[in-house]
């Protein structure tokens, strides 16, 4: 097969890989390991998936690419297909919700030694994932937003290193690195978050039996979002 052409989302993930031995969990078609191997960026990869169908497709793709010596395709649930002998330095988990990613990391912690870099790309529940990382002493080392086919996806790089300063609610809600970098896409997404939060507050206020706790939480988050948006007034963004 010719060189794999990655989508913008998958390319953004691949661009953040800095290791030589990766495990791509929920690999689907094994596109990321194949692209990285074709580019000479990695020495070894595990491409694992819980589904027999995706595993069969991944095996065929790896075979066609002539990369069976560098990429091992494994049928496995979560991180169960990884062992210490694999000496994985980078763990990629993409294309699933933040809640599921958190569960896979919890259930698979015995398959990690704590030195791995986590490269996580949730398609929803990013707040829950950041909360999990903070609670389990994973520092968020880098973050990117990528727009692909009309959707915006966060990509998080994390490591088992306790943050020097505990994350604030603003960090968890909007991302510590994203807040610092303040890209145009971040500001656009934060404005959308402001509008959505206002609609949630309106719905809660109009409910027959308002959930006062939830209302207070949403109002507090709205105040944070507004403050972050106001902080950049007059500043140039990239």
UniProtKB/TrEMBL annotation:
InterPro entries: SAM-dependent_MTases_sf (IPR029063), TrmK (IPR006901). Coiled coil: none annotated. Signal peptide: none annotated. This is tRNA (Adenine(22)-N(1))-methyltransferase. It comes from Lacticaseibacillus mingshuiensis.
């Amino acid at each position: 097969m010719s060189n794999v052409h990655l989508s913008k989302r998958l390319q953004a993930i691949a661009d953040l890989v800095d290791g030589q031995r990766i495990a791509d969990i929920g690999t689907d078609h094994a596109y990321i390991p194949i692209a990285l191997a074709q580019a000479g960026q990695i020495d070894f990869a595990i491409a694992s998936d819980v589904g027999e169908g995706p595993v069969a497709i991944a095996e065929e793709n790896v075979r066609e690419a002539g990369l069976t010596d560098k990429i091992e395709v494994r049928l496995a649930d979560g991180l169960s297909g990884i062992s210490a002998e694999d000496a994985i330095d980078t763990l990629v988990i993409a294309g699933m919700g933040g809640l599921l990613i958190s569960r896979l990391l919890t259930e698979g912690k015995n398959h990690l030694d704590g030195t791995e870099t986590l490269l996580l790309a949730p398609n929803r529940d990013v707040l829950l994932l950041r909360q999990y990382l903070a609670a389990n002493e994973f520092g968020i080392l880098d973050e990117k937003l990528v727009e692909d086919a009309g959707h915006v996806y966060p990509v998080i790089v994390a490591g088992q290193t306790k943050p020097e300063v505990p994350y604030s609610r603003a960090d968890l809600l909007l991302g510590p690195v994203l807040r610092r970098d303040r890209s145009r896409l971040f500001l656009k997404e934060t404005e959308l978050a402001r509008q959505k939060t206002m609609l949630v507050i309106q719905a809660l206020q109009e409910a027959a039996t308002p959930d006062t706790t939830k209302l207070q939480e949403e109002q507090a988050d709205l105040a944070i979002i507004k403050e972050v948006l106001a902080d950049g007034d007059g500043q140039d963004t990239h």
